[in-house]
Amino acid sequence: MPAEPIYDIAHLGHIEMLTNKPEASLDFFTRVFGLIESGRTDDSVYLRAFDDYEYHSLKLTAAKTTGIRHVAYRAASPEALERRVKAIEALGAGIGWRDADEAHGPAYRFHDPDGHEFEIYYETRRYQPGPDARPALKNQAHRTPNRAIAPRRLDHLNLLAKDVDAIRRFLPQALGSRVTEMIQLDDGALGGCWFTCNNKSYDVAYTRDMANGHGRFHHVTYAVDQREHILQASDIFLENGVHIETGPHKHAVQQTFFLYVWEPAGNRIELANAGARLILAPDWEPVVWTEAERRKGQAWGLKTIESFHTHGTPPVAEQ
Amino acid sequence: MPAEPIYDIAHLGHIEMLTNKPEASLDFFTRVFGLIESGRTDDSVYLRAFDDYEYHSLKLTAAKTTGIRHVAYRAASPEALERRVKAIEALGAGIGWRDADEAHGPAYRFHDPDGHEFEIYYETRRYQPGPDARPALKNQAHRTPNRAIAPRRLDHLNLLAKDVDAIRRFLPQALGSRVTEMIQLDDGALGGCWFTCNNKSYDVAYTRDMANGHGRFHHVTYAVDQREHILQASDIFLENGVHIETGPHKHAVQQTFFLYVWEPAGNRIELANAGARLILAPDWEPVVWTEAERRKGQAWGLKTIESFHTHGTPPVAEQ
Amino acid sequence: MPAEPIYDIAHLGHIEMLTNKPEASLDFFTRVFGLIESGRTDDSVYLRAFDDYEYHSLKLTAAKTTGIRHVAYRAASPEALERRVKAIEALGAGIGWRDADEAHGPAYRFHDPDGHEFEIYYETRRYQPGPDARPALKNQAHRTPNRAIAPRRLDHLNLLAKDVDAIRRFLPQALGSRVTEMIQLDDGALGGCWFTCNNKSYDVAYTRDMANGHGRFHHVTYAVDQREHILQASDIFLENGVHIETGPHKHAVQQTFFLYVWEPAGNRIELANAGARLILAPDWEPVVWTEAERRKGQAWGLKTIESFHTHGTPPVAEQ
Amino acid sequence: MPAEPIYDIAHLGHIEMLTNKPEASLDFFTRVFGLIESGRTDDSVYLRAFDDYEYHSLKLTAAKTTGIRHVAYRAASPEALERRVKAIEALGAGIGWRDADEAHGPAYRFHDPDGHEFEIYYETRRYQPGPDARPALKNQAHRTPNRAIAPRRLDHLNLLAKDVDAIRRFLPQALGSRVTEMIQLDDGALGGCWFTCNNKSYDVAYTRDMANGHGRFHHVTYAVDQREHILQASDIFLENGVHIETGPHKHAVQQTFFLYVWEPAGNRIELANAGARLILAPDWEPVVWTEAERRKGQAWGLKTIESFHTHGTPPVAEQ
């Protein structure tokens, strides 16, 4: 039976993505994908969508490989942050505190069971638009860009894990997340699990890593306001030679209208729209999908493309 | 400074709307507006949108007048319900408990400062689709209707109040709601105030009642998945002789894409779409609009129609 | 070099489709697909989209098999009809005149080189809406239905032919059609050819029949006003157990946004949207696609599904 | 009774617009409105939408005033051009031939009864995209811009005239245009008249000039693929301080989904979408609207804004 929602965690804050083609990746994210640069350090560029209220939602870091370095959630209050730290320490998953940086205050770091690094912070740096970025409507973080692709905000990410059941046990205890949907394989193990810490239907999904890696990344997703914007984006990706992996189409799981592309270094990026769907029920029962049901493909019959099951970053040698 | 969100209240559950033209109103809500009947008693019909997970979100009750009889919120847990009851009793606003009925468990009743009746409940009756209503995708409450107007879920309501400042003090204490936006009139009083108890940008708005009434109703809103669905709905309202009051257009406040119509008894009904906009920041600072700013009209310049300021239900004698 | 457009033919008028499951097919076209019945005879039901101005655009006829019995074009004037009859007789393709029936005046019949039967007529029966069908806006043939699937008008059809080059020579002479796009196979033959007799980018396409048949049918297409309507339709097909073959996606050829389903008897039906694309240039040069280009799949990378190349109606024994 | 369509004229080709704020106007059309520069001469810049196949659809010319200098239509063939010249000469409206320029071949000039200058040409300069402008799909003139506002093609224009009835008699004789809709005032005169020379529902509209001018301009319209694109454009105009005069909304006449703005010099510009609506009937009977019908406002009830009746370019002293 679902427990009462905890809500110590307010929302997914940002991810740090690694790229071994930093110039090409930055060009993709800013010129094609419509993110906006807030600032940069030696190795990293801070990026955000036009209505992300914080300094950044994507830290793009030059590296020798791809994938992600860390995932960050913002706590609901200083007290909520403390509660989460205690819970995580009790789980033996903690790494320790990291000092404030240009983007947010002190953050508590920990690992999930597959080795992905997470951090939680409360104090943050709000984005302050300069004169050229000030929106006409003051309830918006940044003016609406005149771009066919202009995501509104960070939506969720998808991580790979060898043992999704372990994640399912861990994340509700560590972050207070709820499970909203999951895929139960015929062998009894979970093939995928979708979690949320608020009213979005998910902010992180884990799917089984079929390769011999750990801490790997499947994709990050930005939300657009309307499905039509994803159709427009498809043309822009086509015009710019971006690899469109699959979509646009509608997922059966979570009903997300999706489009997946690969940025130049190979990290998978999604544009998505959830319509008016939210998880408002405090006692939402996880929706369980079987292998047989998933074999039907996506909502309108599209067969899931093979690379969607096999491609993650960083790449690993095939088993 | 904003306090930590409380989240004792999960979401707006339903409203009870009064109609003195019950047959015409029911015909509007089911044949034109796309709500679905769950059941009925002598004087009331229980209606819901296709993805409302509870038995109903609109109780349509035959009466000698119009407006609403009560507004109901669902608590996040039995404990959260108890906390809210204590808080409301401490405010001296409580009425007392009402027994369970066909739609949900025991509910605690209270009045807001303008005299609107509210109730809070936790135990509820989930909608159970029969064979003809079962959706193809099991993460949805009811099959998607083949209708040009098919709202997904109840979104919010708008009440009128003589003293909006009193409401602004009351609702955060009673329900733990946060204020997300407000209109500050030149005389210092609030002209409007938007509240939320979750990540939606608002679930109830109050605007100043210029007439000599109390406990009056401005509108109730259902959410559709895409803005285009509101454009389609406009044609359907036109074809069915429904009074379109204003829209479709985009509000400056909250950026909602809206369309307002009157059901046959005169209650105002809105279809709306918020795109991907959510209030995720736990420390969201209320956006304050001035009278001068509001005089600019809606987001894209539409002048607010006079009846929008004057028409509420039930009607009152002009002052 | 393109000749001056002829414009003797005003537009595609209707097709007669055969079904060996007449009740199920009629249920599909009216209850799910949103066509409207104008009338019926013993074996046929006359159907139309809400803004088709003639009595019908689809004659659905009970038969022992599937596919189509005839395709009908409306001439621009009585004189234009006479000119076409002479041209067709000169080609040796004529069958002769058919008397007026309940739907239109006398029609001249002929065969295309693959054996499909065509007819051309000028006098027609305009659809006259009764009180319940009268639109709110008088520049529309029938009121807008309150349906998620409500095609506006017949758009085009796709026929199969053993020798597409023969069709390419024939149709411009017979109907005055122009070729707007075509697929040139590596062996020099045409794999597909798109024709128009007006400003639409095509009203009939022919693609190579890989099976041992003749006079076969690939699909008929109705146009909706917006791409979003096709996304909505996808959900409705899913809810109603309709076989979605492929889509929604965007064709590279002609850039049509498409969705293909099979009606219960197996005839393929498309919903499509062309955006604002029209062929206005009087000297439009046919766009020629190579096999290599077509192997890239559809516009956004969707691989063309195998059945799209093999399934036609009526079915034929495999070679 | 409608005559057989003539089709000597293929389509509206371009207009020459005058601006007394050439830099600001050019900035509007290219940076905000999404037109693309093809080239320039001393006083003029040639602009086009991304799928306009000719060198330009808008010639923006620096001048001491605003409004338009000429309207150009492309003939269907050299012979069709000759036929039109003869017809126009017979009407006594001809001015004479103009030599070829950088944009198209020799053009025959004439005046309409209100003094607007028109020209007809056949030979034209097709737009040839350079490497950076080459589209991914070869059936398109120019790559799709990554812009929220990116019109596909020139759609139509609206001129003002003292005597719309005179225009109604003239244009079918001069261009072979058909009347598709019109407004009949209570005094028997025409208040507005919509004409087409092809399958678009109109390519030019004339409405009565209430001021003491002649040869004045009401607006020019570019078409976008989807209505949602017009909603997006509204935000972009808002962000860029562009005067939004009215819309987005749907016209009752012609059912066009519209948005009107003023470019910096005061010329009115429209973005529009017609959905799948076309005039395919060769014997289309003009739809006649009465004053009483027009008083109902636009399709969904929006009252027509006063400036829409009074503002034209160039401005004239009030009577």
Report on the biggest sheet of chain A.
Answer: 9 strands, mixed
Protein structure class of chain A: alpha/beta
Alpha-carbon distance between the termini of chain A? 39 Å
Strand content of chain A: 25-35%
Domain tally of chain A? 1
The fold-level CATH name of chain A is 2,3-Dihydroxybiphenyl 1,2-Dioxygenase, domain 1
Taken in chain order, the helices and strands of chain A follow as EHEEEEHEEEEHEEEEHEEEEHH
- What is the assigned CATH homologous superfamily of chain A? 2,3-Dihydroxybiphenyl 1,2-Dioxygenase, domain 1
List unreliable stretches of 5+ residues of chain A. Answer: none
Quaternary structure of the protein: homotetramer
Mean pLDDT of chain A: 96
Number of strands of chain A: 17
**Rg of chain A, alpha carbons:** 19 Å
Query: What is the CATH C level class of chain A, in words?
Result: Alpha Beta
Overall geometry of chain A comes to globular
The pair of chains with the biggest contact is: A-B, 46 and 46 residues
Q: Could you describe the 3D structure shown?
A:
Four copies of one chain form a homotetramer. By secondary structure, chain A is α/β, with parallel strands linked by helices. Chain A has six helices and 17 strands. The first copy, chain A, has a nine-stranded mixed beta sheet. The N and C termini of chain A lie far apart (39 Å). The mean pLDDT of chain A is 96. Chains A and B meet through loops of A and loops of B.
